[in-house]
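Suppose a classmate hands you a notebook page containing two proteins, each written out with its sequence and a corresponding row of structure tokens. How would you begin to make sense of it? This section walks through that situation. The first entry is reproduced here exactly as it would appear on such a page.
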Amino acid sequence: MLIQLLNLTAFLISCLINLSYDVRTTSVLKKASEAGTTSINEEGNKVLIPTSFTGGPRYMVQSYYDAMAICKHYGFPDLFITFTCNPKWPGINRYCQAIGLSVDDRPDIVARIFKIKLDSLMKDLTDGNAGKDCCL
């Protein structure tokens, strides 16, 4: 009985995590548990998470197909650039110290400065200034 309860609990948690909580499913599982069913595999319905669920397997496959379609149309990329944000950048620290807060208190400022620097990098790359004397 304990194994059945653990299986039922694990299934219910996975339903909640996958955003597929359905009252009908829980009632079916409750009836199966009360009837003494030992296998959860016989109960429930298959739930497909849509591609709009960020991070799901169907989302990843759809993103891959989108990337391949872009590559087919425009050609494969010449560069793969990653751009990260450092909350210890002088501009961020200077602003947060001026208003008496820490960086953790103002994530919007960090995001705004990151966006400004990213736009600057994109402008340098698209204007043909990459490799020349440009300052980030």
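The notebook's second entry, a different protein, reads as follows.
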Amino acid sequence: MVSRNRATRLSWPEVASALTVAVTVATFATWVVLVETSVKGEAAAHTPRPSVAPTATPSPNPSPEPARVAAKIPPPPRGDVYWGAFVPRALRRGPVARLAGAVDRMPAIVMWYADWTHRPDFPVRTARRLERRGIVPMITWEPWAHGRKARTITLRGIARGRYDRYIRRFARGARAYGGPLFLRPMHEMDGNWYPWSGSRPGNSPSLFVRAWRHMHRVFDRAGATNTTWVWCVNQWSVPHTSENTIGKYWPGRRFVDWVASSAFNAGPVRPPHSWQSFDAVFGARYVQLLRFHEPIMVAEMGAPERGGDKAAWIAHAFRSLRLHYARVAAVVWYDQRDSSRPQLGDWRIGSSPKSLAVFRSAVRGARVLSAPAAVERTRRRL
């Protein structure tokens, strides 16, 4: 065995050979340094320098895009529920602040409607402002246009890519925002009142599925994977036929993250309906939604002041959610008067002092989650 501390004597030929190797290594190292310096210099020469002049017109959708986008929004623990509201004019600062002040809680979700009339960009600034306050934005995206000269937007056109340019631009805006987002496109498709309704002439449930999947793929290709897709049916199908059942509109689990339904107690607002409990307007649909094995949302709910006791209805709805609907993970209140019969259909949370007081008490419940619960749970998934 050779000792590690014992010096080894070298002959003159061995010394000469070692010197030759050392000189060769040193020469090669010098050459590498010179090449690296040259490459860095060329790269710097070809890299554009940022301008120091101020930008004249800021972009409506600020950049740069985030390095990482949010994950899909997870449901809360079983038995808990995020609460939110449809807030008219939610793109402004005031309405959301007034709602939070009225109920003494910040909603976990703020929803609004966006149609395609003027092909608006994705509201990046608004979405970021809401996320900073711990709120998840939820956009009900309606592919229709208003006005006399507006052209009808069709399911067939969406499925064939006719509107891809706009869908792609909107998706890129969602990607630029990068935070958690609920997107609810083409809702209540099993009704007969929207251009995307499957029972309308020229439409079908299978055509709706094709349009949904195509839209989803455009978002995926744009990198907008922070979008949580909400597939939302009406609380009952119109017409109530075997060809118009909700299962025929199902795009598949790959294309849906949450399932949802509306739950309105129409009272005297929409004859021939009468005053109905929350269980009556939602219970049957809940059982049907369970079979899709996704988190469930009540995407629109409300009750009027006329026709019954609205405050009692609110209290019963939240109590029933806690006791009988454990798979419901979010509820969104429709905080606006009815568009067709505003005097009868006052769905607003603060339609009376009593209704407001009961709602305030309900959202203070231990199992009802306000902001920033949904945002924080989503961030923990990254």
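A careful reader of the second entry would note: Residues 1-63 have pLDDT under 50 and may be disordered.
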